[in-house]
Amino acid sequence: MGKEKTHINIVVIGHVDSGKSTTTGHLIYKLGGIDKRVIERFEKEAAEMNKRSFKYAWVLDKLKAERERGITIDIALWKFETTKYYCTVIDAPGHRDFIKNMITGTSQADCAVLIIDSTTGGFEAGISKDGQTREHALLAFTLGVKQMICCCNKMDATTPKYSKARYEEIVKEVSSYLKKVGYKPLRLPLQDVYKIGGIGTVPVGRVETGVIKPGMVVTFGPTGLTTEVKSVEMHHESLLEALPGDNVGFNVKNVAVKDLKRGFVASNSKDDPAKEAANFTSQVIIMNHPGQIGNGYAPVLDCHTSHIAVKFAELVTKIDRRSGKELEALPKFLKNGDAGIVKMIPTKPMVVETFATYPPLGRFAVRDMRQTVAVGVIKGVEKKDPTGAKVTKAAIKKK
Predict the structure, then answer these.
(1) Count of alpha carbons within 13 Å of 254, Cβ hemisphere only?
(2) What strands, in cross-sheet order, belong to the sheet with 148-153?
(3) Which tens digit of pLDDT belongs to each residue from 145-179?
(4) Do 54 and 73 have their domain in common?
(5) What is the pLDDT of residues 193-220, one digit of tens each?
(6) Do 260 and 310 share a domain, yes or no?
(7) Is residue 41 domain-shared with residue 177, that is, in the same domain?
(8) Could you give the 3-state DSSP secondary structure of residue 364?
(9) Comparing C-alpha atoms, which of 219, 248, 243, 247 is closest to residue 231?
(10) Residue 62: predicted pLDDT
(11) pLDDT tens-digit series, residues 251-262
(12) CB neighbours of 111 closer than 8 A, spacing ≥ 6?
């Protein structure tokens, strides 16, 4: 017996009439999941009701009652298989009162397919504040679906047909919304690095954003070292992928233990890889300092797993903690209770991100005299491109 195929559940989501059922029905039909006679019967019934395009959608509508109303209600289950997976499609309905169905159905899904109506007006309705493209994407994310495929449907009905400009406009808009929802690139700050006999180098840490999986080519910031992930483990079990919140160990190829340290950050080399911060601007609140803090102050910053001395290069403004309004430009010092915007320069290479893009890597505590002196969030980062970073053979092969 060969290795059993992995089961995955796919939920299909999107705005009303974006073409979820039709697309899914067509896919399952093409993959031989439906008898040809059945589709011919559907075709005839659809023509009789003047809804010719519904024939594929009916593949998914098991309930006769739904057919007459022309909308999908209950979550219908259909199966097909690929070379690697057994797939079950959960067709989630698009009408407003069906959100609760979606909540019961989506939560068992491993992956979501978001169908987008590309027609003029159709896309805008879905992505608008009240549209279901937004709502479904947010729901899927909240319910733990961290992988999404986006499909631009009805491209034959754009003006002109199959308009590249329209496609690019939709990709840009949807990408920026999904990023806001939380489908972010990988960030995994290392807590430790082990050398394990017979396996090799195993960095350990918690996935803060994104996913990590075997076969992925990762770049470690701040050095830019790039290599392939051989395997990912959690609690001594092999994982096909690890999600945010998972504490994992992962085995990397052709990398010595000394090349990685606590505080380094693993990222996907193809998706906004982590880089060294040349300097960054933060909003800081002084909580517990006996004196005054001025330019040149160099305490230790605890940010994610890194623990590095950082110089307060310039106090840019003093601000009101409550309103955020500027009280004074270029103040000489900050003292207890004050808040300010500060430009900071790390004394050693380190990776930080803005709080807006990667929250876990964008907040920090300032430690001095064995206590927390201040806390802050990072507003902006100027990054350095790595020079002469090592790219292992395994990573080059993958490219």
Answers:
(1) 14
(2) 76-81, 85-91, 6-14, 111-117, 148-153
(3) 767 889 999 998 888 899 999 999 989 988 877 76
(4) yes
(5) 999 888 899 999 999 888 999 999 999 9
(6) no
(7) yes
(8) strand
(9) 248
(10) 44
(11) 998 899 999 999
(12) 8, 9, 10, 11, 145, 147, 148, 149
Do 311 and 373 sit in the same domain of this protein? yes
CB 204 within 8 A of CB 190: yes
Distances from the Cα of 165 to the Cα of 118, 160, 198, 337, angstroms: 11, 10, 52, 52
Q: Using the predicted structure, report yes or no on whether residue 3 has a pLDDT greater than 70.
A: no
Contacts of residue 160, defined as CB under 8 A and 6 or more positions apart, other chains included, come to: none
Question: Is 342 found in the same domain as 200?
Answer: no
Read off the CATH number of the domain in which 87 is found.
3.40.50.300
Give the long-range contacts of residues 329-336, CB within 8 A, separation 24 or more. 332/294, 333/292, 333/293, 333/294, 334/284, 334/286, 334/292, 334/293, 334/294, 335/286, 335/289, 335/291, 335/292, 335/293, 336/286, 336/287, 336/288, 336/289
Q: Which domain holds residue 333?
A: 276-384
Please choose, from the candidates 122, 131, 121, the residue with its C-alpha nearest in 3D space to the C-alpha of residue 94.
131
Q: Which among 266, 179, 178 has a CA at the least distance from the CA of 223?
A: 266
State how many domains the chain has: 3
On whether both 174 and 34 belong to a single domain, the answer is: yes
List Cβ neighbours of 10 (8 Å cut-off, separation of 6 or more): 87, 88, 89, 90, 109, 110, 111, 112, 113
- The token duo for 152 is 């631009």
Euclidean distance between CA atoms 70 and 57, whole angstroms: 9
Query: In the structure encoding, which two tokens stand for residue 117, read together?
Result: 């109506």
Q: Show which of 145, 166, 181 is a domain's final residue.
A: 181
pTM for the model = 0.59
Report yes or no on 1 lying in a domain.
Answer: no
Could you give the angle at which helices 132-142 and 164-181 cross, rounded to 10 degrees? 40
State what percent of residues in the chain have pLDDT above 90. Answer: 35
Q: Kindly give, in sequence order, each residue whose CB lies less than 8 Å from that of residue 388, ignoring residues fewer than 6 positions away.
A: none
CA distances from 179 to 171, 219, 318 (A): 12, 21, 31
Tokens in use for 299?
A: 């305490």
Same domain, 217 and 249: yes
Instruction: Report d(CA 143, CA 160) in Å as an integer.
Output: 38
Q: Is residue 303 part of a domain?
A: yes
pLDDT at 224 over 90: yes
Final residue of a structural domain among 152, 181, 210: 181
